[in-house]
Amino acid sequence: MVSMSPSSRSRTVEILSEARYVQAESPRWDGRDGRLAWIDMSTGRLHRGRLDAGKIVPESSVFIGAQIGAPAPLAQPGAGWVVAVDRGMVHVGDDHVVSAVVTDLTAPGDYMNDGGCDPAGRFWVGSQAMPRDPHCSLWSIDADGAPTERLGGVTVSNGLSFDSSGSTLYYIDTLPNRSIEAFDVAPDGELSRRRTVCRVEGGNPDGMVIDQEGMLWVAVWDAAEVRRYSPEGALVETIRLPATRPTAVTLVDRLLVITTASVGLTDPAPADGALLGVQVDVGGTPALPWKGTPETVG
């Protein structure tokens, strides 16, 4: 247990995982069974576990691919997950069988990164460029597996969250502007009225989750912080962490779960690469599911 003091108030940061990961990312609260899923980008694995007495108890680990991105649950219990990986998306059954859904969305050499679902059940996922150059895209993938390019000119597609109605998308393309942006979302998924919510100073904005008040929790890589912003861009709260590189966040009710990375650190601290937890005042909801089924994508 590590007690930290952010600028607004004191909160206690707990180390939830015994394991340390190279680059843990994309934690997801599974509303079907209450469990937690997360990935390790550097090892290409999807992990699942349960929260028990303030700790994460690992239950499964599946190798998905060398360039793994974000997972999203399917709607039906036992139907598995979709996971962004390499240049497309796969379905991962609860039996750990991995099958392709979408391939070759990105240019060779680029690969999928963060993503999540909207209330309509589409899976949104963006790619990142290697080397860094604004030629990548953000896609949505329908329940039948059909992809639609929604935004071009992306460099490092990272956190995204929808408001409760699905009419606003909050989005982070980390480079070059290190900003949170917002878009209006039409019922068919078309994006419009792009605007900057705020710039994120002192580090790189990475994964993001929205809480039940519509506030945005953002992991800030290399700043050892998670920050809570209003939809208008006001910094509401900062929580200091014992890990330098937080990568992403989710809310399991009022437990803010934070994934971190040890990748690239020459002298990692004991908490680098751990999953961390902080009790906060306003809770979240489980990860929105993808509306596809194993039958429609198999």
From TrEMBL:
Q: Which residues form the active site?
A: 206
Domain of life where this protein originates: Bacteria
- Look up keyword Membrane and say if it applies: no
Q: Which of UniProt's keywords are assigned here?
A: Metal-binding, Zinc
- Gene3D superfamilies recorded for this chain? TolB, C-terminal domain (2.120.10.30)
Biological process according to GO: L-ascorbic acid biosynthetic process
Q: Which GO terms describe its molecular function?
A: calcium ion binding; gluconolactonase activity
Question: What InterPro entries does the record point to?
Answer: 6-blade_b-propeller_TolB-like (IPR011042), SGL (IPR013658), SMP-30 (IPR005511)
Q: Which residues bind a divalent metal cation?
A: 25, 158, 206
- Cofactor(s), by name: Zn(2+)
Q: Give the cofactor note text.
A: Binds 1 divalent metal cation per subunit.
The residues that the entry says bind substrate are 113
SMP-30/Gluconolactonase/LRE-like region domain location is 24-261
The UniProt entry's sequence similarity note says: Belongs to the SMP-30/CGR1 family.
Protein name according to UniProt: Sugar lactone lactonase YvrE
